[in-house]
Amino acid sequence: MNEAAMQQRPAKFNSAGAGFLGLFVLVALLVVGYLWAAKTVYNPESMVRAHADAIIAGDAEKMTAIAAPTGGAAELFRGDALRNVEDRPTDFKIVAASRDNTSAHYTVEFHQGDAVGTVEYELKRGGTKALFFEDWRAVNITYPELSIAVPSSTPLLKINGAVIDFSEQIPEDAVIGSEVPVSLSAIPGVYTVTLGAESEFFTVSGEQKYSLSVAGESTRLEGGSPFKLGLTDAGRQEIQAVTNREIDACATQPVPAPNQCPMQAWTYEAFENGAWQIIGYPTVVVNEETGAVTSNPENGGAAGSSAFSYNVPGQSLRKEVTADIIVAAKYRVLPDQTIRVIFDR
Questions:
Q1: What is the Cα–Cα distance from 80 to 76, expressed in whole angstroms?
Q2: How far is CA 105 from the centre of its chain?
Q3: In a domain, 6, yes or no
Q4: Is the C-alpha dihedral spanning 153, 155, 159, 162 positive or negative?
């Protein structure tokens, strides 16, 4: 019995030793994993390299996760527009770096063909992430800006195949047929721009190309064809229908000079209980080159007619004044591909 017991003791010793060895290996792996992650993932240089790789790949999602665009409008960073940018930078190199416990600065050199440009990265340490790792955040990465011209009557454009709505950038009083300059945060490369209107109401043609260099210079390239938004018969009918609906909305204003409307009655006296009646709608024609909508008879249009009735205070007799409906307006294509008619007065 004693001999058997003695034979079992080494086995217990060996089992305990194996346990300690396994624990040691596990701790060693954790330490190695921590050191690897701290050096290759959770450090400012890794963030800079990841962002630069995303620029080269045109990966808007990764770029935005590290540093959201500021300055110009951010529409290009939604969807796949940046993945389709031609002539993007092909490689990069960190040419200067400095770091302390709370901040880090890097200068990155990007190459685009024979051209070279630099981007300055500033990062701040914000504490810890995942309990143990340094949490670095980009605080100053400036994206270059692509400058393009948006037709005032057609704020929907396709940039590298992605439909982008610029209606918020176009002022209500933009001159008919004019182009409105818009700046977009972007990455270096070549961008193809076409009209984005697609419906039974329109035909579209024309293409423009813009180049943004690694030095931040934005230019419209030569050789493009001008934008042209054509109207189908359905489009012309829709503009007439929208004009009529807008006139109906004007007629709900109980005043002799409805705001932003094409008719006005002259009462020359105090009034109350005003009301409009549309007798006949105008016939409007559209200038497809400028987007102007008019009832000018010289162009084939015709004025409409209306009447404004009212009471003079203290009198029971109702009076009525007739007024021509003379349209001077412009139309725009809205983001949902519908048409809006905007009266000049």
A1: 8
A2: 30
A3: no
A4: negative
Structure token pair of residue 325: 């409906």
CA distances from 35 to 28, 135, 185, 220 (A): 11, 15, 36, 49
How many residues make up the chain in this entry? Answer: 345
Q: Is the pTM of this model over 0.90?
A: no
- How many domains does one find in the chain? 3
Assigned token pair, 9: 């003791």
Last residue of a domain, one of 197, 230, 263: 230
**Residues 336, 249: one domain?**
yes
Contact (CB, 8 A) for 154 and 195? yes
Last residue of a domain, one of 96, 122, 141: 141
The CATH number for 288's domain is 3.10.450
Residue 156 sits in which domain range? Answer: 145-230
Strand pairing class (133-141; 162-165): unpaired
- Number of helices followed by number of strands (H, E) in the chain: 4, 19
Tell me, yes or no, whether 339 and 274 share the same domain.
yes
H or E element at residue 9: helix 2-40
Query: Considering the domain boundaries, does residue 5 fall inside one?
Result: no
Q: What is the pLDDT along the chain (345 residues), one digit of tens a residue?
A: 455 444 444 444 455 555 555 555 544 444 433 333 334 446 899 999 999 999 999 999 999 999 888 766 788 998 889 999 999 999 999 999 999 988 999 999 999 999 999 999 999 987 555 445 678 888 777 889 999 999 887 888 999 988 888 888 888 777 767 888 999 999 999 999 999 888 899 888 999 999 999 999 999 999 999 888 889 999 999 999 999 999 999 999 999 999 999 999 998 899 999 999 999 999 999 998 888 999 999 989 999 999 999 999 989 889 999 999 999 999 988 878 889 999 987
Longest CA span, the chain: 131
Q: Is residue 51 part of a domain?
A: yes
Residues 96 and 150 in one domain: no
Question: Residue 291 belongs to what H/E stretch?
Answer: none
Q: Would 252 be classed as within a structural domain?
A: yes
